[in-house]
Amino acid sequence: MEAVILAWTTAGPQWSGAYVTAQDTVRKTGIARQNWLVTSDLPLSVGMDVWLLVVDGGAAMRGVVGHGTLARIAPVPREDGMQLLDVDFDLLLQHGDQVPFTLIEQRLPGLLTGETTAVTVDGSVAAELRRMWTEAVVPNQGWVEPPPGALPSRLTRRISADRVKRDPDFRRTALAHRGSACHACGLDMEQTYGEKGRDLVQVHHLTPLAHRGAECDIDPLIDLVPLCPTCHVVAHSRWPDSYSVEEIRAMLRKGGFMRGTIMTKEQLEAESAAARILRG
């Protein structure tokens, strides 16, 4: 089976802690782990997709609100026949932004019946559920990767990522303060690519994370600077001390040609003009 759907009665005890707290954890760390009980007769496997389906609360809340992966299955069922699961949720939507239950009933009638608490799906059913999720989820500004759940878990790999750079509020604050042009090469992606490029500029830590304490607070007005994707890759091509903005500017002043080639007069003049611009 490709995925399991967990039916969540929000008024019940299934969810540990506050849902908004778990949302904040996902936003900061990438995942929020939850324990879940299901019947032990389900064909489950570690790594399969998990969909969180709210089944109470009226039309404004009912529907698929979260995605995750099955991280662990308890080796032995409990005495009451239930199986304990560990689920790593990587995206939890606001109530109201979910895939509506009415839409699920239209496209996948009979998916959940009666008192069903969980069901596994595969093939066309799993594909249709993923399609509805992808239609409902709006990626954060500046994200170029598909949002969690848009691809089957077997086709993806979870990697460690700096969630601060992906925090939409931090990013918005940094760009409002410093502007949207790359601080290394000067590229303004909206001016160059039009509206489609407006949200693709990235933000970079001025102080490398390796030099920060685990509890260090981030001030987006001071700590984050806009870089285009190319300059951002160059910055992180050195570890643990990434290249500074000034160092990247120096590379640009010295670059502009390929080793072994003879630069034309026009290229030399263009390089000289670019150097004057970079020096300000």
UniProtKB/TrEMBL annotation:
It comes from the Bacteria. This is HNH endonuclease. It comes from Arthrobacter cheniae.
